[in-house]
Design goal:
The structure is a single chain. It is built from 9 helices and 26 strands. The chain is of the alpha+beta class. The protein has 3 domains: 157 residues, no CATH class; 139 residues, Sandwich (Immunoglobulin-like), CATH 2.60.40; 128 residues, Immunoglobulin-like (Sandwich). The radius of gyration is 37 Å and the shape is elongated. The termini are far apart. About 3% of the residues have low confidence.
């Protein structure tokens, strides 16, 4: 046989091979019957799911399922839309799971469809051809004693975008969509909650914050109303406390360090930067917990090298130490002055009937009084926009510092910079008086002593804000522009 004929024959054989591998066999595989991988599988039947993958980053894990006595409404053979019962990762008891991710995984498993089996005449006796000698993923579903089904995923048939599959109890090799493989090819971290401390702020009844700022105990007797009870009774800023709890509950995990609770010193969690105790209302499934947070230093850096890498945290009953990229230690280290109520007034503009100001600085007295439609300033028609703005500035006043009583000078209010007398609406005509006194050096800049009422707590307010609320008649009254007289020309009637 000459070289030319040899080349032609080789080309024909190559075309035949391509036809078989890319057209004939895939076409037969594509025409195979589509069916459920599990003849009948309800979520309530599942007792455990075992997963193993050749992907070292995902590894092997088991998910256990305890069934609720009451099944979900609408549960039917072939799949459910919601999770039922209690699901746990076997070797990570207590690890919160991501409900959405877990639901997607379980739904994908129950609804798994396979095509086949492939015609036996086209099968190779060598399972390595299909990647089933070393499966890319193996999922075993346990349904009671001696009732388990194993599904092994092999190589990808790129022409069909399907994976070769072997199902225990069924002869032959099947195909499954690559999307099904992707939905099931998970590691334990994929279905774990990345916010393991997540909770409802309204469910918290007591909060204790310990940090370098001291220890503060707060209680929430009514939803949204917080009180400081230790080290002394004070009104708390519900807004600030709510923000602290939201920050705590939304701590995002960037790395799970499983089994490290016995080596807390490695992550400085034996002497945490912040420790927060949460007591929840009765009737909840999750227990009260103590959360420890450390400003993170990488445990592997050389001595004298400081490598800030976010923070580490853990909590009572957690199966892990968690790493987060947020600078949570500084955000959560709050003391009494950070958490107490900083607003001087609990008012809205609609509560005010009248405001009178006086000053020892020589500024004339000014009175703003509500009329039937807007406001009068010293009995004159006001510019309501400017009046309401200064009233908003008054009721928005906040303390910038809380000086110790013994540090306040005896003459702090001897010659007041400003006195505002606020009369509230209502039959009682309740009077609230703000006295702004002498200047002081605040940590954030110039400030002034201030107090509400004669016996009120003395605080520091910003000097800029004190000057902003001084009333000036000319700035608050309406400017009336005269209407120009019509010109009269000679000869006009």
């Amino acid at each position: 046989m000459n070289i030319k004929k040899t080349i032609v024959l080789a080309f024909i054989l190559l075309l035949s091979a391509l036809y078989l591998t890319k057209i004939s066999i895939p076409t037969r595989e594509r025409e195979a019957k589509t069916q459920s991988a599990f003849a009948v599988l309800n979520q309530s039947e599942i007792e455990r799911i075992d997963l193993s993958t050749i992907n070292a980053a995902l590894g092997t894990f088991q998910i256990a399922h305890s069934v609720d006595e009451k099944r979900l409404d609408g549960e039917a053979a072939g799949g459910q839309s919601k999770l039922s019962g209690t699901w746990t990762i076997v070797k990570l008891i207590g690890a919160p799971l991501d409900t959405s991710e877990l639901n997607s995984f379980v739904t994908a498993l129950i609804n798994l469809k396979i095509d086949g089996p492939i015609d036996e005449k086209q099968l190779s006796p060598n399972f390595s051809v299909y990647g089933l000698d070393l499966p890319a993923l193996t999922v075993v579903v346990h349904r009671g004693k001696e009732r388990s089904t194993e599904v092994a995923f092999g190589k990808l048939n790129s022409f069909l975008s399907k994976r070769y599959v072997k199902v225990s109890g069924r002869s032959g090799i099947f195909l499954a969509d690559e999307s099904a493989f992707t939905a099931l090819n998970k590691g334990s971290n994929d279905i774990r909650s990345k916010t393991p401390l997540e909770f409802n702020v309204a469910d918290v009844r007591q909060l204790i914050v310990r940090s370098s700022q001291g220890s503060v105990t707060l209680k929430q007797p009514a939803v949204g109303e917080w009180k400081i009870t230790e080290p002394r009774e004070l009104s708390a800023s519900s807004e600030t406390v709510g923000e602290l709890l939201q920050t705590l509950g939304s701590l995002q995990v960037s790395e799970f360090l499983d089994g490290q609770q016995g080596d807390l010193g490695r992550y400085k969690l034996d002497t945490p930067e912040v420790q927060i105790e949460l007591t929840f209302r009765d009737g909840l499934t999750h227990n009260n917990r103590t959360v420890s947070i450390s400003g993170a230093q990488s445990p592997n850096v050389l001595k004298n090298e400081q490598a800030a890498v976010g923070a580490y945290f853990t909590y009572t009953g957690a199966p892990s130490v968690f790493k987060t990229e947020s600078d949570s230690g500084k955000q959560l280290a709050k003391g009494v002055d950070d958490l107490r109520e900083q607003r001087l007034f609990s008012l809205t503009v609609s509560d005010i009937a009248k405001v009178r100001s006086s000053s020892t600085g020589g500024a004339p007295e000014v009175e703003i009084a509500v009329n039937r439609t807007d406001w009068d300033v010293n009995g004159k028609l006001s510019d309501p926009v400017f009046v309401e703005q200064i009233l908003e500035d008054i009721i928005a006043l906040k303390a910038v510092e809380f000086p110790l009583p013994e540090s306040v000078p005896t003459n702090a209010f001897k010659t007041p910079f400003l006195i505002l007398s606020i009369t509230k609406k209502g039959d009682l005509k309740e009077l609230v008086t703000l006295t702004v006194g002498a200047e002081a050096k605040g940590r954030a800049g110039p400030a002034r002593y201030a107090r509400v009422g004669e016996q009120g707590v003395t605080v520091l307010i910003s000097d800029i804000e004190a000057k902003r609320i001084v009333l000036h008649e000319e700035a608050l009254i309406a400017v009336i522009t005269p209407i120009p007289a019509l010109a009269v020309t000679k000869g006009s009637p």
